[in-house]
Amino acid sequence: MTLELFLFFTLALIALVTAGGMVFSKSAVYAALNLVTNFLSVAILYLLLDAPFIALAQVTVYAGAIMVLFLFVIMLLGVETLRAEFDWKKIWLQAVLALALLVEGFVMLFQRMGQAANLPFNTASVLTNPSEMAKVLFTDYLLPFELTSILLLVAMIGAIVLTKQVKKRSL
Amino acid sequence: MLLEYAAIATMIFVTALVAVIAIVLGVLFGPKRPTDKKSMPYESGMNPIGPGTRRVPVRFYLIAVLFILFDIEVVFFVPWALVFKQFVSQSQGFFVFAEMTTFIVILLVGYIYAWKKGALEWE
Amino acid sequence: MTQTDFFTLLPAILLTLWACALLLVDVFTPGAHKGRTAFLAALGLAFTLGVTFLQPGEYTGFNGMVVRDGFANFLISLFLLTGLLGVAVAYGYLRRMGIERGEYYSLMLFSIVGMMLMAQATDLLVIFIALELLSIPLYVLAAFAYPNTASEEAGLKYFLLGAFSTGFVVYGIALTFGATGATSIAAIVAATAAGVANKALLLSGAALILVGLGFKTALVPFHMWTPDVYQGAPTSVTAFMAAGAKAAGFAALIRVFSSAFPALAADLTPILWALAALTMILGNLVAIAQSDIKRMLAYSSIAQAGYILMAFVAFGSDLARPVAISAALFYLVAYTVSSFGAWGVVISLEKEQGKDLQIADYAGLGKKFPWLAAAMTLFMLSFTGLPPTIGLIGKLYLFRAALQGGLYWLAIIGVVTSLISAFYYLRVVLTMYMKDGQPDVARETWLTATIVFSALATVIISLFPAPLFDWASRALLMVMK
Q: Mean pLDDT, chain C, as a whole number?
C-alpha cells in the first residue's frame, strides 16, 4: 500500500465517521464540531487530488468562516440543548432513496473501474494548480470574478439591512 | 508531490502530540479530589447563575457574515498574488492590478457602508 | 477590458456604479431627506435607459461570456422600465408603511443589474452569478418590512427555496460541463454538433437548469413559494419582483434553451409541454379559490407564466422559434405594464401593512373612485385577454406562436383556461361595481402616475401594437459560433 492510498483510506474513514457523527449527534454543537473535522479531512482529500487551491478555500472559507457562522447561529437560536429525535418511520422514504443513490454510485464505480475516464474533454485542461488557475481566472474569467465582488457587496448590504435596527435618530 | 506538504503535516502532528501529551499527563498524574464546590461550572469564581448556555444577540451573526464575506475576498487575493509577477513580466501588470483594484473598490463601498451604518460597532 | 467589452456591458456597468454611489449618498443623507434617494435611483434608471437607446447595436464581450444583441437590448429596456415603475410605486408606499430606508433603492438597482446580465449572459457561469445577483436583493427586499412577521416569513421562505433552486441550476451547469467540457453556450453547441457530448448527462443538466429557472419564473410544480412570498412581502416589492424576476427567468430560459440545447428539443419539448399545461391549469384553478387579492394576483402571475411558456414549447423548430421568442417578449411587456397597474391599485388601497387586501375590501370602489375602478377593470381585462387591452394582443401572438409550433392541444388548454380565468378576474370587477362598501385610497402623485401610465400603455399599445411587435420581432438572439 502506497502512502497516498494509506492517507486516502484514513481520511475517507475520518470523513465518513464525522459525517455520520454530524447527522446522528444529539447536540447541535457536537454536530458542528463533527462537521469541522469532516471539512478538514475533505480538504486534505483535495490535496491528494492535486487541487491545493480548493483545499485552501475549503479550510479558510468552510472550516473557518462558515463554521464560525454555524456556531453563532446555533447559539443565536439557542438550539444547542435541543435533542434531536430520530423516528425511522418518518424518514424511511428518504432512507430508501439515499440507499438507492448509494447503490447506484457503487454500481457505476465498479463498472467503470479500471477503464479510462470517458470524458469529452482533456482532463489535463482542467486546471488545479493555483497559478495556472489564477492566470485563467484573471484573463478569461475576468467577468465572473468582478461580478463576484458585486455579489459580495450585495450580500453585505443585505446582512446589515436585515440585522441592524434603524436608530430613531438620523443616521 | 505529497512530500511538499510534509512540513505542514509534521507541524500538525507535533502540535496535536503536545496537546495530547499535556492532557494525558494531567489525567495520569494530577491529583483528583472532587468536591461539590469544585465540580461546579466555573464562572469567574462566582456561584453560577442560570443555565450555562444562553442565546447570544444577533450582532454576532452580523460579525460572522461580514467575516465570511471578507474571507472570500481574501481567497481571491491568494491566486492573484501568486501570478502577479508573471503578469508583470508579460507587461500586463497594470491590467491585472486594475482588475484587483476594481474588485477591492467595490468591496470598499461595502466597507464604508458598513462603517457608517455602525455595523462594525459593538453597541 | 477592451472597448467592446465595455460597450457590451455598458448599461450594467452604469447601473452598478450608480447603485454604489446611491448607497454611499444615502448613508450620508439625513433621515428626513430619504426621499431623495428614490429620485436619484429613478434618475439613474432613466439615464441608463437613455444610454441604452442611444448606444444600441450588437457587441460580444469578455471572451464571449456576454453579448448585447437585439434580444438583450429589448429586455434591458424592459428591466429599466420595471425599475422605474418599481421606484414609483415604492416611494409613497414605503413612507406610508414606515419602512422607508435608502437601501431599498440600491438593492433594487443591483437586482436589475442581475436581471440585465441574465438577458445578456452566454455562459452558464455568468447566468449562475446573474441569478444570484438578481435573487439576493429580492430575498432582502421581501423581508424588508421586518419585524412584521409575514414579511420575515416571506423573506425566509423565498431565501431557502431560492437557494435550493440555485443549487439545481449549479448542479445542472456542472452536469452540462461534465457532458461537454464547457460552460459557454458556443462551446456546448460545438461539442453537441461534433457528437462528443454525453447525451444522458447533457439532458440531465438541461433538465436541472430548467428546474432552477422554472422556480424563478414560478412554473408549476415549482411555484409553491409564490403565493406566500407575494402575499408576505411588502406590496411594492411584490410588484417589482412579479414583473422583473419573471422576465429575467424567461430571458435566461429562452436564451439557454434556444441557443445551447436545440439539439435536445425532441426530449425537452414533452417536459416543457407538461409544465406549460400544468402551470396554466393549476394557476388558474387555484386562483379561483383565493379571497386575498395578493394571493389571487400571485396565482394569476403563475398562470401568466404558463401562457408564455406555452409559446416556447416548440423551441426546437427553426420556423416556430423566432415567432415564439418575439411573442414571449411582447407578452412580457404586456404583463409588466398590466401587473404594475394592478399592483399599483392594490398599493393605493393598502393603508396598513397587510390590511384591506381582501377582494371584498374592493366593494364600492366603482362608486367612490370611478377612475381607479376603471383602471383596475382594464388591468383585469388585460390579464384575462379581453379587448381593448394589450393582454388580448399579447395572448393572440402567444397562441399564434403555439399554433405555428403545431401545439394544438396546448393552445386549446390555453383558451379553456383563459375562459376559466375570466371568472376570478371579473369577480374583482363585479365586486367593485356591484357591491356597496366604503373603501379608502391613498393619493400619492407617483403612484397615481404609475397607474395612469400602465392604463394608458395597456390601451394604447393594444390599439397600435405594430411598433412594439416589430421591435420584439427584430429582437433576435445572436447566433453563437
A: 91
Domain boundaries, given as residue ranges, for chain C: 3-474
Hey, what amino acid is at B40?
M
A150 and C31 in contact by Cβ < 8 A? no
Top pLDDT among A128 and A158 is at: A158
| Helix H or strand E encompassing C60 | strand C59-61
| The residue type at B105 | V
* Chain CA centroid to CA C295, Å: 17
Banded model confidence at residue A124, pLDDT cuts 50, 70, 90: low
C61 pLDDT higher than 60:
yes
Contacts of A168 in chain C (CB under 8 A): none
Bridge partners (DSSP) listed for residue C61: C66
Alpha-carbon distances, residue A163 vs B114, C140, C177, C377 (angstroms): 12, 11, 38, 41
Output DSSP code: residue C341. H
Q: Which three cell numbers stand for residue C462?
A: 393594444
Q: Which of residues 95-114 of B touch A (CB under 8 A)?
A: 96, 99, 102-104, 106-107, 109-110, 113-114
Give the distance from residue B102's alpha carbon to the nearest chain C alpha carbon, in angstroms: 11
Residue C24 to residue B113, Cβ atoms within 8 A: yes
Q: Mean pLDDT for chain A?
A: 83
Tell me the per-residue pLDDT of C89-148, one tens digit each, with 9 for 90 and over: 999 999 888 888 889 999 999 999 999 999 999 999 999 999 999 999 999 999 998 888
What is the pLDDT, as a whole number, of residue C43?
A: 95
Measured distance CA(A8)–CA(C328) in Å, rounded = 53
Show the cell assigned to C242: 412579479
What is residue B31's three-state secondary structure? Answer: coil
- Give the dihedral sign, CA A69/A72/A77/A81: positive
Q: Do C23 and B117 touch (CB under 8 A)?
A: no
User: Could C27 and B106 be called an inter-chain contact, meaning their C-beta atoms sit closer than 8 Å?
Assistant: no
Q: Which residue of C has its CA nearest to B112?
A: C24
Q: Which residues of A touch C180 (CB under 8 A)?
A: 120-121
Q: With an 8 Å Cβ cutoff, is C119 touching chain A?
A: no
How many structural domains comprise chain B?
Answer: 1
Average pLDDT over residues C418-433: 93
Q: To which residue does cell 455602525 refer?
A: B118
Please state the rounded mean pLDDT for residues B82-97.
Answer: 89
C-alpha cell at A45: 482529500
Residue B57: per-residue pLDDT: 79
CA distance C27 to chain B (A): 7
The closest of A161, C450, A11 to B62, measured between CA atoms, is A161
- The confidence score (pLDDT) of residue B52 equals 67
Give the cell for residue C346.
Answer: 392594490
- Measure the CA angle with vertex C425, ends C422 and C429; round to 5°: 115
Bridge partners of A1, per DSSP, are: none
In one-letter notation, the amino acid at residue A34 is N
User: Closest Cα partner for C413 from C433, C398, C434, C393?
Assistant: C398
ipTM computed for the complex: 0.92
Q: Is the pLDDT of residue C324 over 70?
A: yes
At a CB cut-off of 8 Å and minimum separation 6, what does B70 contact? B107
Say if CB C382 and CB C392 are below 8 A apart. Answer: yes
Q: How confident is the model at residue A90 (pLDDT cuts 50, 70, 90)?
A: confident
Q: Could you tell me if C142 and C232 are in contact, meaning their C-beta atoms sit under 8 angstroms apart?
A: yes
Query: Amino acid letter at A22?
Result: M
What pLDDT sits at residue B93? 86
Mapping DSSP onto H, E and C, the string for C292-333 reads EHHHHHHHHHHHHHHHHHHHHCCCCCCCHHHHHHHHHHHHHH
CA dist C233 and C236 (Å) reads 8
Q: Are the C-beta atoms of residues C5 and C62 closer than 8 Å to each other?
A: yes
Write the CB contacts of A70 (distance below 8 Å, at least 6 apart in sequence).
Answer: A32, A35
**Domain for residue B23, yes or no?**
yes
Q: How far is B31 from chain A (nearest CA, A)?
A: 29
